[in-house]
Every structure is written in C-alpha cells, then in structure tokens.
Design goal:
The chain has 266 residues and is an alpha+beta fold. Strands 1, 2, 3, 4, 5, 6 and 7 form a seven-stranded antiparallel β-sheet that branches. The chain is globular and about 80 Å long. The N and C termini lie far apart (104 Å).
C-alpha cells in the first residue's frame, strides 16, 4: 500500500515538475522571441540610418525618409498610371521640396481581389516604385504614355480625361514600344523630343514596364519592376551592390528624365 502511495505521489510530483518546466520553457521562448524581435528592430533602424539615409541623401540632401510610409495611390490611379486595385501597401516613402511642391516616391505593392463565386482570389497586380514629381515648367495639356502595346494591360489603366486620345509620335522605335495618349497633339512634338524619347526607351530597357503621366507641372510615374528597393538584405555581404546602388540608379535616372522634360516644355 505504501509503495502504491509513493508511486502515486511520485507521479503527481513528476507531473507538477513537468508543468513547471513547461511554464519556464514557454517564458524562455517568449523572452528569446522578444529579444530576437528587438534585435531585428534595432538592426532595421541601424540599416535605415546608416545605409538608406546616406544613399538617399547623396542624391537628395534635404529628403525625408519614412521606412513604413507609402505614396498616395489614389493620385496615381486618377492619373492613369496604375491598374485598379483592392488594397495597397508600400515602404520607404521619400519626400522632398522642389519647384513649389512636395515631391514623393516609394515602394508600392497593389493587390486586386477578384471575388468570383465568393472565392475571393487575390492577385498582385503591381509591385515596384511610384513617383509624384513637380516640374519647374508647366505643360499646357496632358500626355500619358505606357510602356506596353498589350490591349488588355492598357485597358486596366484608368482613362484620365474624356478628351484624351491615342496618337503616334512618328518615331517608329518609340511607337513600337510605347502607347501614347494626349489631350493636345501639338504639345507632343516638343514635350516628347528625341532626348526625352531616348531616356524613356532606356528606362524601359532597364526597368521593364512602366507608365507616366505629365499634366501641367506634375509628372507621375509608376515602374512595375517586381522589386522592392532599399529592402534590408539578409546579410551584409556586398550590401552596396544588393539593392542600394540599384535603388540610387533608378532615382537618379528618373530625376534626369524629369529635368529633360522640364527643358523640353520650358
């Protein structure tokens, strides 16, 4: 009888110890998880301060950087440079003042939920970068161009103006690559001069599909690159060659394009 009681007490004692060990293990996991999250957070903050800020400020010294921010997607949609979407996310919103307004660009990802038969299938329709930039000169009209000849892709973009119509520029290489819309054909001949066309063709070759709309003193551009710029790499080996230099190059190329457009409409 005593042996049975001892056995029962031993089992209960073992169960109690096991429970305590489980609780201690759970607490340890939580502490380790919290410390790991803090480490990632600190590393991200250090990365943003030491790498991203220095890279952006080397091009735009007065720029402000919001790692968790994104650009105004409604403006992009209303200007006809991104497709219809159900939800939007983004990162690394860069803002700076130029030409009397605040210029913005950021990473952007757009999803569209196609609720067919209640299944709610989600498709990613855009992943890349978007820009809203103010020009130093004003275009008397509107030009919108898309680096695509695919009718289905073109139909997904919002028509921005009832007076907008598709035109040919007369440059066969450019017309084979871009679909151009305008509210006034007369402005195309000087706004899309040879220098501007060359830069647009180079951007297409480097970054793939994109759309641009220029209206009065604003240029809105969306690059569907499929990449996230300024993303923190998993390791620091060759960090400058992973994402930062690519990101800087695109920003500089876009700014050079805008300068060329400013000169063409000046």
């Amino acid at each position: 009888m005593i042996s049975m009681m001892s056995f029962i007490l031993g089992v209960k004692h073992f169960a109690f110890v096991e429970m305590i060990l489980r609780v201690i293990g759970g607490v340890c996991v939580l502490v380790i998880g919290w410390k790991y999250a803090q480490l990632i957070k600190n590393n991200c903050k250090q990365y943003d301060e030491d790498v991203v800020e220095k890279a952006v400020h080397s091009i735009l010294p007065d720029a402000k950087i919001d790692p968790k921010g994104r650009i105004n997607v409604n403006k992009l949609y209303n200007m006809g440079v991104i497709p219809d979407f159900s939800s939007a996310s983004g990162s690394y919103l860069i803002s700076y003042s130029r030409n009397g307004g605040t210029n913005y660009f950021s990473n952007l990802s757009l999803d569209y939920t196609n609720d067919v038969y209640g299944q709610g299938k989600v498709n990613t329709v855009f992943t890349g970068q978007a820009y809203v930039l103010y020009l130093g000169n004003c275009l008397k009209g509107k030009i919108r161009l898309v680096a695509s000849k695919n009718k289905k892709a073109l139909s997904l973009l919002h028509k921005t103006d009832e007076n907008e119509k598709q035109i040919m520029t007369g440059n066969s290489t450019f017309d084979d690559t871009f679909t151009v819309y305008t509210t006034d054909e007369r402005i195309v001949s000087y706004a899309l001069n040879d220098q501007v066309m060359d830069k647009l063709l180079a951007l297409k070759q480097s970054y793939g599909g994109f759309a641009m709309s220029v209206c009065q003193n604003e240029a809105v551009i969306a690059f569907n690159t499929g990449a996230v710029y300024f993303a923190m790499p998993h390791n620091y080996q060759n960090i400058e060659q992973i994402s930062i230099e690519t990101s800087k190059n695109e920003i500089q190329n876009v700014l050079n394009l805008v300068k060329e457009i400013e000169k063409s409409i000046g």
